[in-house]
Hints:
ribonucleoprotein; ribosomal protein; Ribosomal_bL28_sf; Large ribosomal subunit protein bL28m; Ribosomal_bL28
Amino acid sequence: MVLLGLRFTLFKNFxxxxxxxxxxxxxxxxxxxxxxxxxxxxxxxKKTKRVWKPxxxxxxxxxxILEQTMRFEFSTHALRCIDKAGGFDNYIMNTKxxxxxxxxxxxLKKLMLEVLKCKEQGMxxxxxxxxVFPQPKVSKHVHIPKTYTTRFYFDWRGPRKxxxxx
Length: 166
């Protein structure tokens, strides 16, 4: 527990099972940052629960390995770490999965490793995009219109059949 001035108290030491990361953390690159929980104390020492959210910005980075611009939500701590690592690609490749933490960043790291292996074999980038990059999902929902052959048909609704005229 850390006192932040007179009014704010921050709980830092949570057991591992109590530490929660929202789904939003897995969609961006936050470098292990997440929600922090604590309480605000009033003058009468009543305590009100409080949540501190990470400082997040949307930013585009160009990946030289993937040869395309990537847009993610980054925490400001992650932006400083990217500058310190010497660029976006160096940050993703050299940072441990423990600190990347988000599923998006870990999948991006795996994709970059596959692309580097293909580039070492001498494959052109157009062929790499077809083989390695994930394909867009195709919708399985297809509208099939009903065809009616007779003048009326039986439609099952509840405990009895009802005749519907066309």
